[in-house]
What does this fold into?
Amino acid sequence: MLDRRRRACANARSSRHPEETMSDTTTHHRICPLCEACCGLEIQVRDGQVTGIRGHDADVLSAGYICPKGVALKDLHEDPDRLRAPLVKRNGVFEEVSWDEAFAEIDRRLPPLRAAHGRHAVAIAVGNPSAHKIGLLTYFGKLARALGTRNVFSASTLDQMPKQLASGLMFGHWLTVALPDISRTDHLLVLGANPLVSNGSMWTVPDFRGKAKALRARGGKLVVIDPRRTETAAVADAHHFIRPNADVFLLAAMVRTLFDEGLVRLGTVADWVVGVDAVREVVAPFTPEAVAPGCGIAADTIRTLTRELAAAPHAAVYARIGTCTQEYGTLCSWLVDVLNTLTGNLDREGGVLFAKSAAFASNTAGKPGIGKGVSTGRHHARVSGAPEVYGELPVTCLAEEIETPGEGQIRALITVATNPVLSAPDGPRLARALEQLDFMVSLDIYLNETTRHADVILPGLSPLEEFHYDVAFPQLSWRNHARYSPPVLPAPPGRPAEWQTLLKLAAIVRGEGAAVDADALDEAEFAQDAERLFGPHADAVVAATVAYRGPERLLEVALRSGPYGDHFGRKSEGLTLAKVMAANPTGGIDLGPLQPRIPEVLRTPSGQVELAPPSLLADMARAAADLARPAPELVVIGRRDVRTNNSWMHNLPVLAKGPLRCTARVHPADAARLGLRDGTLARLANGPRQITAQVQISDEMMPGVVSLPHGWGHDLPGTRLRVAAERPGANLNALLDDQQRDPLSGNAVLGGVAVTVHALHE
Ligand SMILES: Nc1nc2c(c(=O)[nH]1)N[C@H]1C(S)=C(S)[C@@H](COP(=O)(O)OP(=O)(O)OC[C@H]3O[C@@H](n4cnc5c(=O)[nH]c(N)nc54)[C@H](O)[C@@H]3O)O[C@H]1N2
Ligand SMILES: Nc1nc2c(c(=O)[nH]1)N[C@H]1C(S)=C(S)[C@@H](COP(=O)(O)OP(=O)(O)OC[C@H]3O[C@@H](n4cnc5c(=O)[nH]c(N)nc54)[C@H](O)[C@@H]3O)O[C@H]1N2
Ligand code: SF4
Ligand SMILES: [Mo]
It folds into this structure.
């Protein structure tokens, strides 16, 4: 045991020594933490300054791919507006304070508030970047548990909750997500996603363009369904406009066509699927003719789309944000996998497969082939009654839970890497609600539209000052792998890592005071966790991992006890953190293409793929009732640009330069009808909610649809985002209603919302 530990230490040290290249320039390899593509980067450093960032050609996952945001890590690191010390608001003004003072302020104010009003009075909200931070992901739960509040909110209910719910109901775990096997498929049908720009989501697929090109070069076909002729549509074989919010009808009609035309084949999973007849019954109302007007797609085209999918030797259907952030998000996410299953493409090479990640893989935990499945609604939001899903309430309930008096009213909030004032519907209402709070703490790196409302802001480190290992995304990757990145630059002395901040906050909440030492606390908690997880072997695990601390230690345990692990010496060829660290300069460890995993991957109580979960069948009645609903004249949808990342990267000069990106794109026919001129301003309105945006006329839009990116609106007072404020853009979410949700997942409706547009020029 001791020998192994020494080796681990030695390797750990050597992998921290970057390659020496020219005289005093060093080369480092770092996974990009900015989006789900998780590209491997090669970063040059000289005299403590980043001098170059490019893709790492040897990276086992991304093979040299990079986008402009990866390059912007330098700007992020150097951004003078990025917070480097805690801020405390005194008499309405933020003052820089020491870490001790910041924690003391929280200790003075938070525990008494909790004691007076109960644990649910303190809410917590967590955002997108936390998914890219091992420290936040592995230690957030400790703070949430200490709080014991049911008021847990996250950006998941602005995003992928429908996909997670549908996957959980069908396969038994919310991270058991079926991923297109892009390198071996012959036919890829994409709905409501633009991976050429977004670089993929709930599907880690760096260089989608290259992979799509390879697919077409080997004779395969890429088909895109989107109300905008997107960058992805531009490289596809076929693109069809669809009326926003109509995907549920299209997908149901495709499923019905499979049954009608005798095209249903379950293939290799035939023995593991239940519910086929129930699906056949529930799609009965959705004939291609019945859905065609609502979709804006001809019935014959719907049949052709279906036949091509069924006829392809290997095919995959993939759908993302455009199909999740709408009224039928969960139904759409489910029907996508119904199509994958009924065409014989579930769990087969070239179809859709499940990843098997090396560490923290929830879909390798527990007994193979059977499990508890998932349930929702264990508690409900106090005001709206919305059900809990995976321990969370919809973030669109946050404002009303703060505003509405009574038992259980939210009086304090902790935000962790989230900017809901811009990212969630009806941001202005939420901003007003945040002002009513008795106390607010933000873990964030900027003083922005949300954190300006905080009483205390606690900044994390620059990504270049932290080690990295992706917890979530190897579970969603196109290929299995394990990659570790050491810090590129040393953290400034005295600055805690975010996991330490979370531990301190948890201790304060538990009443242990502000003076506790985070490292000592971590050591004690690690020993307790080891006891719980490893029983009689706990002491050996503690001893074997003593070279590491914090999230690195959890990673060591997860890797060694994971599906490729060395099981603490029982499988000597297996993975350890030291081995993964040692592979950093050579691009990580490739664990091969995805493999079929049914039935082993299933965790449903039946041990089967649940093709017809009762809650989803029941919700289809809502869709059927809406079939004849007339389409609004004009609806708004979202858009992403390669130089943006939600709300928070508009302050980086390298990304901010160039043409204005926050424009309202409208079809020429709509522009003519509404008297809109290119480059002039227009007012968009949804009931009382209004914003002003610059018009861009473009025939890439479907007539009747206007597209505007989200995450803009940097003109609010009290922020410190000097570059972003120069061209603030309009906040799409100031136009949207926070009461519109997918009832099953609680996900916000962010697209397909009826708006009016008025020209503001003379
Ligand atoms: N209308 C509309 N709205 C949308 C969407 C849409 O398509 N249309 N998309 C939705 C989606 S998919 C998502 S994921 C959400 C995102 O919603 P959020 O997660 O709320 O928003 P972000 O803009 O990602 O804000 C991230 C916050 O984290 C901070 N941050 C960045 N790095 C760090 C770090 O290392 N540590 C800490 N502590 N903080 C950090 C940033 O300063 C910022 O405050 O937005 C959603 N909103
Ligand atoms: N450059 C960049 N990359 C990003 C982000 C970013 O902000 N900028 N954000 C990251 C995040 S948090 C996420 S979750 C992912 C999202 O990744 P994607 O899901 O690929 O996101 P989008 O690029 O917004 O693509 C959504 C598409 O849905 C279309 N759409 C809108 N409504 C409908 C509809 O009703 N039906 C159909 N079929 N299509 C519709 C839109 O026109 C758009 O093309 O991107 C990530 N990557
Ligand atoms: S696509 Fe761009 S932002 Fe996303 S991980 Fe790769 S380099 Fe980073
Ligand atoms: Mo997202």
Observations:
- Confidence is low (pLDDT under 50) at residues 1-17.
- The radius of gyration is 25 Å.
- Residues 35, 128, 159, 191-195, 197-199, 201, 225-228, 230, 242, 244-245, 247, 320-323, 326, 637-638, 640-642, 644-646, 707, 751-752 surround MGD (ligand 2) (CB under 6 Å).
- The chain is about 35% helix and 15% strand.
